[in-house]
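Late entry, manganese (II) ion complex.
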Amino acid sequence: MTTYTFADLPYAYDALEPVIDATTMQIHHGRHHKAYYDNFLAAIKDNPLNGQPLETIFAHISKESAALRNNAGGYYNHNHYWNVMRPNGSNAPSGALLDAINSTFGSVDACKAAFKDAGIKQFGSGWAWLIVGKDGKLAITSTPNQDNPLMDTAAVQGTPILGCDVWEHAYYLHYQNKRPDYLDAWWQIVNWDYVAELYAKATA
Ligand code: MN
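Prediction complete; structure with ligand written out below:
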């Protein structure tokens, strides 16, 4: 049985400043993420999938309600997002992950540019993703709303190793309508060590 917990952020609300301001983090984690969590618990309560890992739920999500899809997605996606960020990230990918990025995209900069493009072109609310596809190769994609690439409904499916929230609630207080500026600044706080861990697991 999986217990669905609501975790504190792994750092202080103001730890990601100036890239993401403390008020945005407080509202995002304490209100938006908390609402997805509470609504997920309500939606899964009487479902036979209750207690299953989220990955299992996502693999069958096309047969489930919109409430479960949106809130299970919101719960998972935000947990992922908090953990792929850290104060003073600003390191760079290395090792096997760096090799995979170079062979797939040509360079880290080209990977970042493709990721930014996916984030900008996601119309309305959603997420930009770097994933390990079912072929074991890296790919960049985006999903609308709180969908993610683990869902059987996703156009491009795979295991997320780096996801960026491009809902306006993630950046609007500081960046207003300038989503590209948020996506540019965001690399400063990416926790590449954690991304590398997810890559290793996904390719094991
Ligand atoms: Mn969000």
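Strands lie at 126-133, 138-144, 158-165. Will revisit in the morning.
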